[in-house]
Amino acid sequence: MFSGAQISLYPMTDDFVTVIVDALSALDPYRDRLRIETDDISTLLVGTPDVVFNAMRDLFVAAAASGRHCVLHASISRGCPGEPDDPMCHTPELTNPMAPLDERKARALATVASAALSGQSVAAQFSLYTLGIDQHMHEIYGCIDFVKSSSVFDKSKNFCTKLRGDAAPVFATVGEALLRFGHPAGHVTIDLTVSANSPTPL
Amino acid sequence: MFSGAQISLYPMTDDFVTVIVDALSALDPYRDRLRIETDDISTLLVGTPDVVFNAMRDLFVAAAASGRHCVLHASISRGCPGEPDDPMCHTPELTNPMAPLDERKARALATVASAALSGQSVAAQFSLYTLGIDQHMHEIYGCIDFVKSSSVFDKSKNFCTKLRGDAAPVFATVGEALLRFGHPAGHVTIDLTVSANSPTPL
Q1: Which positions bind thiamine (chains A, B) (predicted)?
Q2: Contacts with A77 from chain B: Cβ below 8 Å
């Protein structure tokens, strides 16, 4: 199994470099459990989904604390057949047999409900793609059911589902979507956008 | 068939609203062939892939002409079984029978080679997801072969492929990836990021 994300942070300010550099220390508690590579478009985080999602959450909350309109985008993947197996990415959730859909939804909801709040309000939207299977919409609809039952569901949109609420349950919801839907050993990806401090009226 | 994109434009400047508003007139030539809906995270463009890609290209080139570091993100989709059929999205490429892979690669390369240059240099990365089929990597590897032969291939990264060059062949390459790979009637999505005027050294 190989899992991780290509992430980018966009602070809408002349001083975007300072906002990004100041936020980077939020990654420090995770650096021993991540492989990190940066270029001019994105930063690669390789690690288990829980570490990757906690690191993204803390990085984004730190940037949003600047008060500036900030957006984080992440292209998240696990189980891509084209990527090498990596011991750094091993996690029991992705090696155990596939549990029934209702059991997976219940576990996902319990994890989201137990997330300690961050104090940062965000809006987010994401698309889940379960690849390499015939009935891919079955898993996607199962995930949408879970998200609609969670505390941070906002609305369905074309191509994606929108969330709103505290950053902690929002990132936990998307993390559970990656972990619990699609076959544990399967190829699953997420296209995630998280926004804070937008001046656009809701 | 239903096709379109959720797009977001991120100018990294205090004056991001002005950069966005000034760029919007670039969409005017396409408005009669698009359905457009905006909220606080993204703008939905519904239309045929060629119209959607040309509109995204012109919008991004207009924003990048500000000289500011600008990023466009797009979550692009065609053929999602959960979306309604829409006459506004009908295009022959997505109703004809599936051509052999080599023929599709050749057509894609010819389209990219004929793109009139925009004069705006960009970097970009994208991931192609061909859904609802068992051998999804076959189509993805076919697409990667095409991209590696195109004039704008930069490098392979984990989870995505990176492009660099003039905005016109870059957007054309990603548009051809959506049109020509995966079954014509199938569900195919792309996670696209395009960047200009980045201060990060290459």
Answers
A1: 9, 43
A2: 127, 158-159
